[in-house]
C-alpha cells in the first residue's frame, strides 16, 4: 500500500512539473530559513550549558532603584560561602582587564585578561588542552592561555613551563592552555590567579565592601526553587547590611544559564544576546514555514478539479476516504522531504553569509542524530500540515458528481484560498514594516546628537612611564599642531558603569539615596568633546579651588530640584570632598541610547587617565603618527594602542544592526515565497479561464481590460492583508522601541510604503501570466468550442 502511494505520488509530481517545482522551491526556501533560524536559536540557548553543574551555579548581581549591575564587592561572595550552608563553593572573577604581555622580542596588548580565584575549575568545567586543572592556578605568578593566544605567542610548541612577562616586570609561568569553550559568556584570552592581583588591589587587600568590581558566582548543593532563591537574596541583603548599613541595595542570584540572554546589567561582560530577539526569530521561522505551507495548500486545492476524475474512479473501484487521504498526504510528505534535502544544501551554502551577518560561527552537523531528528520532525510536520487540507478536500469528492463533471473548485475554495493569500501577505507586510522601523531606529541612533561631537575623536589609555611625568606628556602634545587639542579624563563617555551614592548638596533629603555617575576631567574636556555649558564656567587650571569644585549635568539639576542659576555657587560634597558647583553642562549620553541620561558629576582631573584628542578631518593619519611618536619617546616599553570614540558608539548597537540585517533577509524571503505561490495561482487561474478570455477578446475586450479583470482577484486580498498587517506591525514595533529611551517616531508612511511594496511585488508577480493569457490568440482558445 505504502509503496503504491509513493509510486503514484512520484508519478503525479513528474506529470505536473510546474506545480511540483513551485511547491518544492517554496517549501525548500521555507525549510532552509527554519534550519538557519533553528541553528541560531540553538546557539543562543546553549550558552553556559556545557558545565556539568550549570543548573546549580548562580551569579551574584546587585540592584539599586536606578540600575542593576552584574558586579559585587570583593568580600561578599567569600562571606556568602562561609555563612550559607546551602552554598558549597564560591568563586570570583575580575572584569576583563587590559595588560601588556611580552614573549621574546614581541609585545602584545591584551584586553581580555581575567583574574580568578584558585577554585575556578572546581566550579566551572572549562577544560585544558595542556596542563593540570587541579594545579594550574596554585602559584600566584602563573598564567593559562587560550588556544588562540597560545598559538599567537608560541606557535605549535608546547607553551607549558614557558615564561610570559606582564607589564614589563612580572614573570608569569604558563601552566595551561584553555580549550575553546562551547558558547560561554566568559571568553578570556588569558586566566591569572586572583592571588597575584591581591598583591596590589586595595579591594582585595582591605576587603572593601563599598566598591563593586568583581563578578561573583556561587555553587549550590542543588538547583534552587524560586522561594529558595528569594530567601537567599534576602539573607545576602542582610549580610551586606551588616557591613554597609547606609547603602540601599538589593542582591539577586542569577542562574548561570540565563546570563547570556537575560542580562540587562551595567558593567556586564560584553557580547550578550537578547531573549526577545530569539523569540522573534522563532516566530519568524514559524511564519515563513506557514507561508510556505499555504502555497502548497493553495495550489493543491486550486488544482483539485483536475484530480477529481482520478478520485471518482478510485472511489468507484472501492478506495476508502482514509486510503485517499493517505495517498495525498504521501504526496505532500514526499515533496516535504525532497524540499528538506534541497533546504539542507541551501543552508550549507548560505551559512557563511548568515554567519557574516550575525557574527556567529554556526555549523550544520548532519552526523548529529539530534539535529537529524529535529530536521526530520520539521519536514514531517510541514508535510502533514501542508497536505492535510488538500487531502481532506480531494478525498471528500462525491463519485457521482465527479463522473458527471459537476465538480469545480467552488466559491468556498476560492474564499479559502483568498484567506490564505491574506495570511501570507500579512506576514510579509509585518516583516517589511518591521525591518523599515528597525532601519529607521538604527539610523536615528547613528545620527542622534549624543551631547558632544563624536566624530574625529581618537583616544588611548596612559600606561607605564606615561604616569611618571604628566607634564612631559602635556608638553609634547601641545608642541605638535596635530595633537594640541587634547584632554585627560578617567573615562571615555561611551558606555560608563561607574557610580556613587556618597554625595551631598544643599537641601538634600537624607533618606534620598541617588546614584550619580562621575568622571574626573581636566579644563579642556568640555571644549575638546564639543559639549555645551549652559550655566557657570568650565574648570580652570588657574583656579586652585577647582581641585575640589564640581560641574553637574542637567539631569543632576532635576534630581537636586535646582535650576541652573541657583545651582552655581551652591555647595556639593563628593566622598567627603566639599566644594561648590561652578558649572552646568548640557546633558550628554554616556550610556547606550536604551538608557536615558542619568545624573552626572564632573570633578577636576590633575593626574591623567585616558587621553582624548580631537583630530582635523583631513589630518587623522598625521595625528596618529604624531601620537605614536610621542608615546614611543615617552613610553618605549609599551606599544601605542588607540581607538575611535565614534567606533565605540557604533559597537554598542552592533547586535541591533545584525538583527536588522537578518530581518531584512527573512522579510525578502517571505515576500518571495508569497509571490511564488501567487504566481502559481495566477498561472492556474489564467489557464482555467482561457476560453473566457478568448470570448472576451473576440467581443472586443482590450489587453489592459483583461489584465485588470484577472489581477483584481489577487490584488484585493493583498489590500486586505495590508489593512490587517498595519496595526499588528505597529503594536510589535512599538513594543520593541520601548526598550530605547530615545527612539524614532514612525508614522503611517512606514506602513503605506510596506503595503505599496507588497502590492507592487504582487502585481508584478501575477502580471506576467495575466498579460500572457490576455495576448493569447482567441482562435486557439476557442478552437475546441
Overview of this protein structure:
- The chain is of the alpha+beta class and 785 residues long.
- It is 50% helix and 16% strand.
- Strands 15, 16, 17, 18, 19, 20 and 21 form a 7-stranded mixed β-sheet that branches.
- Helix 1 crosses helix 11 (321-358), helix 2 (17-45) crosses helix 11 (321-358) and helix 14 (410-447) packs across helix 24 (748-774).
- It is elongated.
- The two termini are 41 Å apart.
- Hey, roughly how much beta strand do the residues contain? 15-25%
Would you count the extended β strands for me?
23
Helix content: 40-55%
Largest sheet: 7 strands, mixed
Please mark out the parts with pLDDT under 50 across 5 or more consecutive residues, or reply none. Answer: none
Name the average pLDDT. 84
Number of helices: 25
SSE-based structural type:
alpha+beta
Report how far apart the termini are: 41 Å
Oligomer: single chain
- The gross shape turns out to be elongated
What is the radius of gyration? 34 Å
Amino acid at each position: 500500500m505504502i509503496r503504491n502511494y509513493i509510486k503514484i505520488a512520484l508519478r503525479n509530481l513528474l506529470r505536473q512539473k510546474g506545480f511540483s517545482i513551485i511547491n518544492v522551491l517554496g517549501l525548500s526556501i521555507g525549510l532552509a530559513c527554519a534550519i538557519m533560524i533553528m541553528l541560531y536559536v540553538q546557539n543562543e540557548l546553549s550558552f553556559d550549558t556545557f558545565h556539568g553543574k550549570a543548573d546549580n551555579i548562580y551569579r551574584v548581581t546587585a540592584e539599586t532603584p536606578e540600575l542593576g549591575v552584574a558586579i559585587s564587592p570583593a568580600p561578599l561572595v567569600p562571606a556568602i560561602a562561609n555563612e550559607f550552608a546551602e552554598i558549597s563553593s564560591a568563586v570570583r572573577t575580575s572584569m576583563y582587564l587590559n595588560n601588556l604581555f611580552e614573549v621574546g622580542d614581541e609585545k602584545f596588548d591584551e584586553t581580555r585578561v581575567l583574574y580568578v580565584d584558585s577554585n575556578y575549575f572546581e566550579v566551572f568545567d572549562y577544560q585544558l588542552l595542556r596542563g593540570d586543572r587541579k594545579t594550574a592556578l596554585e602559584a600566584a605568578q602563573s598564567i593559562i592561555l587560550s588556544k588562540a593566544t597560545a598559538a599567537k605567542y608560541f606557535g605549535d610548541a608546547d607553551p607549558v613551563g614557558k615564561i610570559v612577562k606582564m607589564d614589563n616586570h612580572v614573570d608569569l609561568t604558563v601552566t595551561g592552555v584553555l580549550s575553546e569553550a562551547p558558547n560561554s559568556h566568559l571568553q578570556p584570552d588569558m586566566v591569572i590567579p586572583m592571588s597575584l592581583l591581591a598583591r596590589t588591589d586595595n579591594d582585595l587587600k582591605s576587603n572593601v565592601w563599598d566598591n563593586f568590581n568583581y563578578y561573583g558566582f556561587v555553587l549550590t548543593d542543588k538547583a534552587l526553587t524560586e522561594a529558595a532563591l528569594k530567601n537567599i537574596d534576602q539573607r545576602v541583603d542582610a549580610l551586606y547590611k551588616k557591613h554597609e548599613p547606609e547603602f540601599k541595595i538589593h542582591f539577586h542570584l542569577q542562574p548561570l544559564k540565563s546570563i547570556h540572554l537575560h542580562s540587562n546589567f551595567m558593567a556586564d561582560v560584553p557580547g550578550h544576546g537578547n531573549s526577545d530577539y530569539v523569540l522573534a526569530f522563532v516566530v519568524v521561522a514559524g511564519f515563513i514555514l506557514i507561508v510556505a505551507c499555504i502555497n502548497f495548500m493553495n495550489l493543491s486545492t486550486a488544482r483539485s478539479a483536475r484530480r477529481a476524475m482520478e478520485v471518482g474512479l478510485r472511489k468507484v473501484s472501492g478506495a476508502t476516504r482514509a486510503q485517499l487521504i493517505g495517498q495525498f498526504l504521501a504526496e505532500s510528505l514526499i515533496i516535504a522531504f525532497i524540499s528538506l534535502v534541497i533546504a539542507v544544501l541551501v543552508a550549507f551554502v548560505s551559512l557563511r553569509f548568515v554567519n557574516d551577518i550575525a557574527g556567529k560561527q554556526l555549523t550544520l552537523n548532519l552526523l548529529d542524530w539530534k539535529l537529524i531528528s529535529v530536521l526530520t520532525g520539521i519536514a514531517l510536520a510541514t508535510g502533514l500540515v501542508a497536505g492535510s487540507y488538500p487531502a481532506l478536500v480531494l478525498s471528500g469528492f462525491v463519485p457521482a458528481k465527479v463522473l458527471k463533471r459537476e465538480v469545480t473548485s467552488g466559491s468556498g475554495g476560492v474564499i479559502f484560498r483568498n484567506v490564505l493569500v491574506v495570511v501570507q501577505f500579512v506576514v510579509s507586510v509585518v516583516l517589511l514594516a518591521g525591518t523599515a522601523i528597525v532601519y529607521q531606529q538604527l539610523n536615528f541612533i547613528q545620527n542622534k546628537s549624543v551631547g558632544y561631537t563624536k566624530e574625529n575623536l581618537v583616544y588611548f589609555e596612559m600606561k607605564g612611564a606615561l604616569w611618571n611625568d604628566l607634564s612631559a606628556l602635556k608638553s609634547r602634545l601641545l608642541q605638535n599642531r596635530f595633537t594640541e587639542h587634547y584632554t585627560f579624563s578617567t573615562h571615555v563617555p561611551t558606555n560608563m558603569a561607574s557610580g556613587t551614592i556618597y554625595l551631598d548638596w544643599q537641601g538634600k533629603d537624607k533618606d534620598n539615596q541617588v546614584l550619580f555617575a562621575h568622571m574626573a576631567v581636566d579644563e579642556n574636556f568640555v571644549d575638546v568633546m564639543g559639549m555645551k555649558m549652559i550655566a557657570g564656567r568650565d574648570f580652570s587650571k588657574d583656579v586652585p579651588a577647582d581641585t575640589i569644585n564640581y560641574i553637574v549635568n542637567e539631569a543632576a539639576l532635576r534630581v537636586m530640584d535646582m535650576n541652573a542659576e541657583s545651582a552655581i555657587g551652591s555647595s556639593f560634597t563628593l566622598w567627603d570632598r566639599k566644594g561648590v558647583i561652578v558649572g552646568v553642562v548640557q546633558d550628554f549620553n554616556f550610556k547606550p541610547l536604551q538608557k536615558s541620561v542619568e545624573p552626572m558629576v564632573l570633578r577636576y582631573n590633575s593626574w591623567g587617565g585616558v587621553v582624548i584628542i580631537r583630530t582635523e578631518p583631513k589630518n587623522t593619519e598625521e595625528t596618529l603618527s604624531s601620537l605614536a611618536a610621542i608615546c614611543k619617546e615617552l613610553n618605549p616599553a609599551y606599544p601605542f594602542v588607540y581607538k575611535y570614540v565614534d567606533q565605540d558608539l557604533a559597537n554598542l548597537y552592533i547586535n541591533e544592526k545584525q538583527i536588522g540585517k537578518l530581518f531584512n533577509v527573512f522579510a525578502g524571503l517571505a515576500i518571495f515565497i508569497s509571490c511564488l505561490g501567487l504566481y502559481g495561482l495566477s498561472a492556474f487561474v489564467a489557464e482555467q479561464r482561457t476560453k473566457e478570455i478568448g470570448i472576451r477578446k473576440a467581443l472586443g475586450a482590450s489587453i489592459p481590460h483583461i489584465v485588470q479583470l484577472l489581477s483584481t482577484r489577487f490584488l484585493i486580498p493583498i489590500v486586505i492583508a495590508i489593512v490587517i498587517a498595519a496595526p499588528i506591525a505597529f503594536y510589535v514595533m512599538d513594543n520593541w522601541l520601548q526598550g530605547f529611551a530615545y527612539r524614532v517616531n514612525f508614522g503611517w508612511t512606514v506602513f503605506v510604503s510596506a503595503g505599496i511594496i507588497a502590492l507592487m511585488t504582487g502585481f508584478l508577480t501575477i502580471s506576467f501570466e495575466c498579460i500572457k493569457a490576455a495576448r493569447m490568440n482567441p482562435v486557439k482558445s476557442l478552437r475546441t468550442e
